[in-house]
Design a protein that fits this description.
By secondary structure, this protein is α+β, with helices and mostly antiparallel strands. The chain contains 7 helices and 4 strands. It has a two-stranded antiparallel sheet. Strands 3-4 form a two-stranded antiparallel ribbon. Helix 2 crosses helix 3. This is Winged helix-turn-helix transcriptional regulator.
Length: 169
Amino acid sequence: MARVAVENPDTVCPVARSLDIVGDKWTVLVLRELYMGVSRFEELQIQTEATPQMLAGRLKALEANGMIERHPYNEKPLRYEYRLTRKGWAFYPVIYALRAWGEGWCKDESEGVAVRFIHRECGADVGLANVCPNCGAPVARDDLQPVVSSHYAKEREERRAAFKDRQQG
């Protein structure tokens, strides 16, 4: 397991040290998008609604802490995409837990589930669990096919359209 220099040497508390890396809204939203397959700066900015400076800062910090890596996808102008490292993927259960908690405690039932996860192996909806209710297999992110609800897909598309309008106006 690759480790990075400790940012908060004043404590041995793993929660405090973890929060030094991922303890703000913008960083967690960037990670959410990376788990959803978004890898390019503009789309990360659109879906997180972060300013370019804020997003650049979070991406640099995630890279410095070994959570992501930059990979060029265009040479002129030089553009990068961002990919999760093994350490970045190891944070996924935290996002999954936040999702489950948020679905249960932060939304009205009428809103429905934003993203359903289907177990690739047996086709069952795993709901908010990390064990498939159909076949009993423990599931990791790679075992699941995300299905975005129409409401959430519309919300994401509206953010994209608003961003494009701001760029043109």
